[in-house]
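Annotators were shown the component list below and the corresponding predicted structure, then asked to write short factual statements about the assembly.
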Amino acid sequence: MEEKCRLCNSKNIKLIKNGVRDNKNIDVFKCLNCGLEFLSNTHQADEKYYEQGQMHASYNIKNWLKSTLTDDKRRTDYLRKYITNKNILDFGTGNGGFLIQAKKYAKSVYGCDLDKSLNEHYKNNNLEVKNSLNEFSEKFDTITMFHVLEHIENPEPVITSLKEHLKPNGNLIIEVPNSEDALLTLYKSEAFKNFTYWSCHLYAYNSMNLQRLLKPIVKINKIIHIQRYPYTNHIGWLKDKKAGGHKRYHQNKIINFVYTMFLKLTKKTDTLLVIASC
Ligand SMILES: [Zn+2]
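Structure shown to annotators:
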């Protein structure tokens, strides 16, 4: 286990959890200086793990696409101006759901994913996805990275290579989970804590340490707090101590609007979106 924070080098670190949901031998630490949360081990989720498609090994591709459709559409709508008539690269393509949506508006879409087991699926959906960034000689208007950064052990060289693949004035868009999610910091839900920390999320970022990581490499235009899950999901975690509350409870749109505003203002949303440029 590292004695200091890999981001700010502070030795002021604290154990915040024994064990993660899929491995009781991996602990979670937090840097009390910059707030970065990190796992005691990282080699369980190395490049080989992703290359062999182990993260999604048990997934049925149809159900997987169905489960990400809301997020894929939200991202495409929200980021429309970065997509329309642009050349896009989605780094960490996964099931390709975002590219399938973005294709309707973009000039061209490409993907990059380590997982070779998905190549057949990409081909079937007419998606051009390569397994390494080095295979791209072209540059892009927009590079997206949805819930990928937290899986990368050494993010700085990856961000630097992505920047090199951007056209002048191109945008790098990064979405990550927020370590200051209300379920953790406001409600201190043990059930959610036991669920959310897992062996593939090597780091958990907040808006401050995300800036610290990215600022030396790219220009940050804005960091936006986004709430993916409605208040009924939070009711589920707090009342039933399990996921899926938004599928069990009826949702009121006005209450959800006000609740989302509150989470944004207090910076306790579940998700962060960074818009950066080179
Ligand atoms: Zn730190």
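Statements collected:
1. The chain is about 35% helix and 20% strand.
2. Residues 56-277 form a domain with the Rossmann fold fold (CATH 3.40.50.150).
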